[in-house]
């Protein structure tokens, strides 16, 4: 995203990668020790201020919506002075349900912030997010049957999205009801919950979880090659192609450690038992992502014949 360049000195390259890695580990104010904030000030003076200048200069906030943003991406941009505020809603809710905001517990990476004031948000069966408030639509035009499928008799709009709340009340979107699949052992797996958690890793750009009617959940993982290249440089790992890099024993060992780390957030029946690193970068021009940057599952599954 912000290339270090081939014609810079060794010291400049070291400072660049140090600043880049520091940004991906950034946490919001009040969560970082003072020495980390001091490091950020140094990095801002040397590197981040130049990055901001390249993408426009002064920023108040950048709003992200339409698709989940990875925690480390929000962390990175917030660290360099481009604070990301996530939001969530539907056209049927005019259109905001929750949004990150200034103030106590108003913003946290990996969440879409707090629900709006004056409305009701709760979790129904299978953790579906349902919503009731003055901004819910009256109904679909000339389609009372479809309206009744979405808005129940008590006025709750069923979003079809699944979620959970943090102890502070921020809403986390975990997936879609229709995406949940069942293994051959009869265990439900929410692939988007897994994908959302695993892509918090700076090593993972994107992934899809599969396993319907199989014995266990498996995953295709598209690495964050920019971060991985910096990691390889730091550990003096030589490579010429993405394939050579992902097949290096030390890289494989590092991903095994990462998978084990994030599997611990899930029950045994949900955990990723097998995975494959792919060398393609999933992009919109490549046909793997929708215009809203959502993964095209069918396209990816067909491409890799999973």
Strand content: 15-25%
Helix content: 25-40%
The CATH superfamily title of the largest domain: ANL, C-terminal domain
Total number of distinct structural domains: 3
What overall form do the CA principal axes indicate? globular
The secondary-structure element order is: HHEHEEEEEHEEEEHEEHHHEH
Q: Under CATH, the topology of the largest domain is which? A: GMP Synthetase, Chain A, domain 3
Offer a few descriptive terms.
306 residues; alpha+beta; Luciferase, domain 3; GMP Synthetase, Chain A, domain 3; 3 domains; four-stranded antiparallel β-sheet
Briefly say what this structure is.
With 306 residues, the chain is α+β, with helices and mostly antiparallel strands.
């Amino acid at each position: 995203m912000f290339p270090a360049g081939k014609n810079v000195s060794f010291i400049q390259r070291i400072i660049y990668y140090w600043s880049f890695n520091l940004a991906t580990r950034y946490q919001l104010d009040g969560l970082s020790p003072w020495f980390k904030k001091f490091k950020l000030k140094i990095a801002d003076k040397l590197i981040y201020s130049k990055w901001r200048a390249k993408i426009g200069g002064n920023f108040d906030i950048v709003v992200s919506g339409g698709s989940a943003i990875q925690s480390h991406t929000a962390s990175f941009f917030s660290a360099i002075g481009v604070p990301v505020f996530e939001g969530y809603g539907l056209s049927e809710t005019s259109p905001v349900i929750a949004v990150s905001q200034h103030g106590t517990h108003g913003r946290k990476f990996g969440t879409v912030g707090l629900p709006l004031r004056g409305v009701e948000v709760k979790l129904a069966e299978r953790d579906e997010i349902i919503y009731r408030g003055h901004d819910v639509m009256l109904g679909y035009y000339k389609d009372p049957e479809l309206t009744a499928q979405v808005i129940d008799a008590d006025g709750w709009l069923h979003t079809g999205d699944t979620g959970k709340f943090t102890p502070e009340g921020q809403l986390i979107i975990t997936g879609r009801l229709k995406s949940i699949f069942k293994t051959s052992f009869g265990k439900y797996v929410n692939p988007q919950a897994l994908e959302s958690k695993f892509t918090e890793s700076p090593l993972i750009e994107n992934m899809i979880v599969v396993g319907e009617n199989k014995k266990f959940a498996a995953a295709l993982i598209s690495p964050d090659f920019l971060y991985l290249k910096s990691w390889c440089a730091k550990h003096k790992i030589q490579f010429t192609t993405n394939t050579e890099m992902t097949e290096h024993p030390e890289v494989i060992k590092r991903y095994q450690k990462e998978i084990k780390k994030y599997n611990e957030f899930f029950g045994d029946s949900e955990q990723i038992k097998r995975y494959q690193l792919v060398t393609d970068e999933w992009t919109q021009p490549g046909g793997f992502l929708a215009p809203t940057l959502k993964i095209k599952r069918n396209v990816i599954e067909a491409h890799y014949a999973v």
